[in-house]
From TrEMBL:
GO terms for molecular function: cytoskeletal motor activity; structural molecule activity. It is found in: Bacterial flagellum basal body. One of its GO terms (biological process) is bacterial-type flagellum-dependent cell motility. Keywords: Bacterial flagellum, Cell projection, Cilium, Flagellum. Its main location: other. The gene is fliE. GO terms for cellular component: bacterial-type flagellum basal body. InterPro entries: FliE. This is Flagellar hook-basal body complex protein FliE. Coiled coil: none annotated.
Amino acid sequence: MSIQLMKGILQQLSFQAQQTAAPQKSTFLSDNKSDDKSLHFSSMLFNSINSISQTQNVAQTNAQDYMTGATDIGLNDVMVSMQKSSVALNLGIQVRNKMVNAYQEIMNMAV
């Protein structure tokens, strides 16, 4: 599953959430916030996707550096960064699957 596809799904979910919640204003987060910064689910998810992408880029860079003969990186560093990248990607895929399942359940609810 590519990062671009996950971003597309995120944008579609954000758009649909804005369409359904536009007339109503939720005060759930505004009652509990202590400063001007409020947490939005979409921004948290977008930051997570960017973090996964950065982890993959670091792993790829480490692997390329090792293959070109850089002396400051060892095989163990390459393997650890690749495993971190793999775990992060698998976590992202599982979160996406849970989001799609939750979305499908909500869409199948009778109103």
